[in-house]
Amino acid sequence: MAVFHFRGKKLSGKLRTPSDKSISHRAVMLGSLNRGKTVVREFLRSEDCLNTLKAFVELGAEIDDREDEIVINGKGKQSLKEPFNVLDLGNSGTSIRLISGILSGQPFYSVLTGDQYLRKRPMDRIAVPLRTMGAQIFGREGGKYPPLTIIGKRKLKGIDYKSPKASAQVKSAVLLAGLFTDEPVSVTEPAKSRDHTERMLRAFGVDVEVDGLTVRLGKNRELERDIEITVPADISSAAFFMVGAAVTPNSEVVLREVIINPTRTGILKVFERMGVDYEVFNVKSSSGEEIADIRVRYSPNIKGIEIGGSDIPTLIDEIPIISLLATQAEGETVIRDAEELRVKESDRIKTTVENLRNIGGDAEELPDGLIVRGKTKLKGGKVFSHGDHRIAMTFTVASLITENPVEIDDVECISTSYPGFFDDLKKVLNE
Ligand code: S3P
């Protein structure tokens, strides 16, 4: 248990929040399939990403972890070996789902598992298309939950997959499996999810075409480049300090080198519409992604809005912290079309609403989202993170404005995405 109370302090200064989790995972995965040298700088050394790294070491990839950079001497996509042990992906949904795509194209037996939370997360969303492509995938409860067993094949079948969900993990699993067939492979989503896999595959030399909501693999499916990837700061981590500054009197923070890929910046659109005082500047490009510095100032006059539809995938991981922001807005904020939140690291609709109420907020669950009524005085109280890093960070930030302390049962989970969170908080927490 940890107790926080930062009321009366402000957030000020500059931070380079940790590197992007999605891009760090993909850099190691694609680097391990590459025939060539991949250098990854600013890799996110969080538990989730280190679990991906460990899995590829167990799969025989030649990885030299020099701490400040990771060098992968890739021997091509056919070079992976049957792992001697079960691959334990900890808390990481992205790892297990994307690696399943890659293992579908490997002619060997592997078993993938994770922590008590990951073992409850649905895997049929990837298993269904990957089985259609020819992989054998088994799991608990009729193949739905980890541990998963995968027996892949050197040559898979093609697929034109109409994904029922806007999910980058599903899209990526199919595209990665698609590297192991010459037949047509495409994925069509109902709304655009983050496109880091497509961008990075291209950077490695793979032909990828994008046509509206459809992504198609072209003729060349070999990764054959010497490549250097510098991972930008994760907007999903920066978001905690962005919202912290917006709700805390006298605050002004600058978050540096944050990824501003349009599939990730839904929170900035929300800021615009709610009236948060923010600015995006120093826009640059880095390893195929746009990055920028983001300044956010205390914003006492924000208003509630409706959030839904195709904006949801662009801010899916920021909904808990946006809900905290909504407690300080004039009027109601209604978030819909976000039923995916029910199967994240926790049921985030439930854990966000319950904990907002626990600290004196006025919030209500919807089947596919939540309603937050604004201008509430948050009192503080007991919070249960349910092992979910983003819930633990959201309610740590809440303690900047609660009358009384916030007690959080488990904050260890924060290290899955943001091991230096409390150090960074200390850096910008000022009198
Ligand atoms: C991720 C995709 C999203 C996101 C997760 C990371 C990725 O999940 O919530 O934190 O790196 O592909 P879904 O694809 O399940 O929406």
Explain how this protein is built.
One of its GO terms (cellular component) is cytoplasm. Monomer. GO terms for molecular function: 3-phosphoshikimate 1-carboxyvinyltransferase activity. It is found in: Cytoplasm. By secondary structure, the chain is of the alpha/beta class. The chain has 2 domains: 2-19 and 233-430, Enolpyruvate transferase domain (UDP-n-acetylglucosamine1-carboxyvinyl-transferase, Chain), CATH 3.65.10; 21-230, Enolpyruvate transferase domain (UDP-n-acetylglucosamine1-carboxyvinyl-transferase, Chain), CATH 3.65.10. The protein has 13 helices and 24 strands. A 5-stranded mixed sheet has the order 16-17-15-2-24. The protein has a 4-stranded mixed sheet with strand order 4-5-3-14, with helices on one face. A hairpin with a 2-residue loop joins strand 20 (362-366) and strand 21. Helix 8 runs parallel beside helix 10 (319-326). It is globular. Shikimate-3-phosphate (S3P) binds at residues 22, 94, 167-169, 172, 193-194, 316-317, 340. The site of shikimate-3-phosphate has 11 residues, from helix 6.
Please render the helix and strand layout as text:
Elements: E1 2-4, E2 10-15, H1 21-33, E3 35-41, H2 47-58, E4 63-65, E5 69-75, E6 87-88, H3 93-103, E7 109-113, H4 124-132, E8 136-139, H5 140-143, E9 145-151, E10 159-162, H6 168-177, E11 185-188, H7 196-203, E12 208-211, E13 214-217, E14 227-230, H8 235-247, E15 252-259, H9 266-274, E16 277-286, E17 289-297, E18 306-307, H10 319-326, E19 332-335, H11 348-358, E20 362-366, E21 369-373, E22 381-383, H12 389-398, E23 406-408, H13 421-428, E24 429-430
Helix pairs in contact: 1-2, 1-7, 2-3, 3-6, 4-6, 8-10, 8-12, 10-11
Bound molecules: shikimate-3-phosphate.
Residues 22, 94, 167-169, 172, 193-194, 316-317, 340 line the site of shikimate-3-phosphate (S3P).
Subunit structure: Monomer.
Enzyme class: transferase
Binding site for 3-phosphoshikimate: 21-22, 26, 167, 169, 317, 344
